[in-house]
Specification:
Oligomer: single chain
Strand order of the largest sheet: 1-2-3-4
Low-confidence stretches: 1-19
CATH architecture of the largest domain: Up-down Bundle
Largest sheet: 4 strands, antiparallel
Shape: rod-shaped
Number of helices: 9
Structural class: alpha+beta
Helix content: 55-70%
CATH topology of the largest domain: Outer membrane efflux proteins (OEP)
CATH class of the largest domain: Mainly Alpha
Order of helices and strands: HHHEHEHHHEEHH
Radius of gyration: 43 Å
CATH superfamily of the largest domain: Outer membrane efflux proteins (OEP)
Distance between the termini: 44 Å
Length: 428
């Protein structure tokens, strides 16, 4: 019994899934995941990880292998006077073997960085900030995709409404054509009156065909962006708008500016760190002739170890100018951010004005449609009485249809304007 209930529930879920329409949010998410540029994220992260791994290896012992063979024009010798003095003191003859002018050495040195002044950590932070900049640039390109998806989605919705209205108009013209044809048969109307209605019917079919062609094209493009199967029969759910639109701005451009400022701060820290001394430990071992004892003529092993301090004082020469460049770059980013926010605010005000205008238009659309319908019905009655012409009736029918189209257009335009407000502040 439980198995049957489970199978039945699964069947209902599948049916509901098939019957439910496609949402704007799902199209936007699918388009983002399906867009080739999304692969850039993975490439950026891999590049960042490789760079961080490379920099981190600076803390590992650095091993250097060196070999050399030299010939020198002269070698160290004990002066004869010093040899005589040593002989006089020791009472024994003193002799010093002569050194070879050809010398050989092979050595391995291991260096272990102890303190670098903070250069490596600054480099890591700079690499992470650079990766974040690349991500936000990619995010900006992907964010522009939202507007294209919205235009296609709402465009299809508007076309659907127009096709329905044209079908209603065609049905109405067909019914009136029968009435006029009856009047012609009774001698009340002329055959040209019936032809006039038929012309409107043909033109309406042409408009329906044009709308269907445009609808098919829009569906194909939206399918290409999302990877979904979307055709003229696919239901599109009308978005539910949560108003008012939040005023906080979450645009990726602002995150880009923040990442750029962070990179400059890390570069500034790296400049200061480069002026600190560096401390490392080292061990060197080798084999050569001579070894550490230069007075031996035999091959011998040797080793040496200790602590090394190095300090490049020449970096102080360019510190001020490099810091000045960073400050100029920081000011440029501030100007770019200020310009973006200025233009963004202008766009927001423009969209908000459009939203307010469309709301006011919608308030009067129903009244206009009601009045136009009354006028059309009165015109149909007057045509039956022979007090107006078929041309007058067609004019009233078209006027009512235009009013219906205007309302449908205003509804879609209002949704588009509200979503433009959402895009303006990234409140999707």
């Amino acid at each position: 019994m439980k198995r049957k209930i489970w199978i039945g529930s699964l069947f209902l879920m599948l049916c509901f899934t098939q019957l439910s329409g496609i949402t704007l949010d799902s199209c936007r998410i699918k388009a983002r995941n399906n867009y080739p540029l999304i692969k850039q994220y993975g490439l950026i992260e891999k590049t960042r990880d490789y760079n961080l791994s490379t920099v981190s290896k600076a803390w590992l012992p650095q091993v250097t292998l060196g070999m050399k063979a030299t010939y020198q024009s002269d070698v160290t010798e004990i002066p004869a006077s010093l040899g005589n003095a040593i002989s006089a003191i020791t009472g024994q003859p003193f002799s010093m073997p002569s050194l070879d002018k050809d010398q050989y050495q092979a050595a391995v040195e291991v260096n272990q960085l102890i303190w670098d002044g903070g250069i490596i950590s600054s480099q890591k932070r700079s690499m992470e900030a650079s990766a974040e900049i690349d991500k936000q640039k990619t995010e900006i390109d992907l964010y522009a995709l939202n507007e294209r998806i919205h235009q296609l989605y709402f465009g299809i919705m508007l076309l659907n409404e127009q096709i329905v209205l044209q079908d209603v108009l065609l049905d109405e013209l067909t019914a009136n054509h029968k009435k006029v044809q009856s009047l012609v048969e009774n001698g009340v109307a002329l055959p040209s009156d019936a032809d006039a209605v038929k012309v409107e019917m043909i033109q309406t079919r042409q408009r329906i065909y044009d709308l269907l062609s445009t609808q098919k094209n829009y569906c194909l493009i939206l399918s290409a962006f999302t990877g979904l199967v979307i055709d003229e029969k696919t239901p599109l759910e009308k978005p539910v708008v949560n108003e008012p639109v939040e005023a906080n701005n979450y645009r990726p451009e602002l995150k880009l500016f923040a990442a750029q400022q962070l990179l400059l701060s890390n570069q500034e820290k790296a400049l200061h760190a480069s002026n600190f001394p560096k401390i490392s430990a080292f061990v060197q071992g080798g084999y050569g002739r001579p070894g550490l004892n230069m007075f031996t003529t035999d091959f011998s092993p040797f080793y040496i170890g200790g602590i090394r301090l190095s300090w490049n004082l020449s970096n102080f020469y360019s510190l001020k100018s490099n810091l000045g460049k960073i400050e100029l770059n920081r000011q440029q980013i501030d100007v770019m951010k200020e310009t973006f926010l200025f233009n963004n605010t202008l766009e927001r005000n423009q969209y908000q004005t459009e939203v307010n205008k469309l709301r006011e238009n919608l308030k009067s659309d129903d009244e206009i449609i009601s009045l136009r319908r009354n006028i059309k019905l009165a015109a149909e009655a007057r045509l039956s009485n022979g007090t107006i012409t078929v041309t007058d009736l067609l004019r009233e029918i078209n006027s009512e249809h235009i009013a219906l189209q205007q309302k449908a257009l205003h509804e879609i335009q209002l949704l588009m304007a509200i979503y433009q407000l959402k895009i303006n502040v990234n409140n999707l």
